Amino acid sequence: MRRLLLALPFALLPLAIAQAAEVHDHDHEHEHEHEHGSLGAHEHGVGRLNAALDGKTLELELESPAMNLVGFEHVASSDADKAKVAAARAQLEQPLVLFSLPKAAGCVVAKQELESPLFGDKPDADDHDEDEDHDEDAKDADGHEHHHEHSEIHAHYQFTCAKPEALKNLDLTQVFKTFPATLKIQVQLISPAGQQGVEATAKAATSLKF
User: What is the reported pLDDT for 77?
Assistant: First the structure.
């Protein structure tokens, strides 16, 4: 799935490099290495969203550690864990609501794909290699060590919008409300307004304009 928007990361590479050079909050200085649009380091609490608006077609590609969306990264075995995975998937299957797309834009879902080992999908070979690189002992915010493979959830959506001019802001408010363990989302957007990049948070969830 990550290959569906190949043109977007390449088009935004100069922007991502420029972003990495910007001065961020001093609390986030140690995270500059992640500003190139890669979740290779698999940082809990951090997701990535690529967005592109071309004519009446809007594409959104969300990538997130499973921890942010379901609270764990192992394949669900208990009924409680299976319920959490099912609930997260059900929420991801309602993108018009999740991304607060205005009704005035007349957007309909033309295509959507969800992919994750937690959904029973087998990882690609390159995904497996990435996991191997990062399958070392990790510590959470409380300093507890975890011994498990990293799992991500990828969601790709394509919308056809009858009135794209009604799309004003990329509003991620509902995403943060639905998945509160997501602390920030690195967003890159290509639209008629140009190329934009921002680190969105729950308190600043609507800063990108179409």
Answer: 92
Number of helices (H), then strands (E), belonging to the chain: the values are: 7, 10
With respect to residue 152, please indicate whether it lies within any of the assigned structural domains: yes
Q: Which amino acid is at 145?
A: E
Which tens digit of pLDDT belongs to each residue from 41-98? Answer: 568 999 999 999 999 999 999 999 999 999 999 999 999 999 999 999 999 999 999 9
108, 94 Cβ separation under 8 angstroms: no
Residue 7, phi-psi category: left (phi > 0), alpha (psi -120 to 50), beta (remainder): alpha
pLDDT at 202: 94
Q: Domains in the chain: how many in total? A: 1
- Give the Cα separation of 23 and 4 in Å (integer): 31
C-alpha distance from residue 59 to each of 8, 22, 155 (Å) = 10, 27, 11
Q: What residues make up the domain containing 30?
A: 7-136+146-195
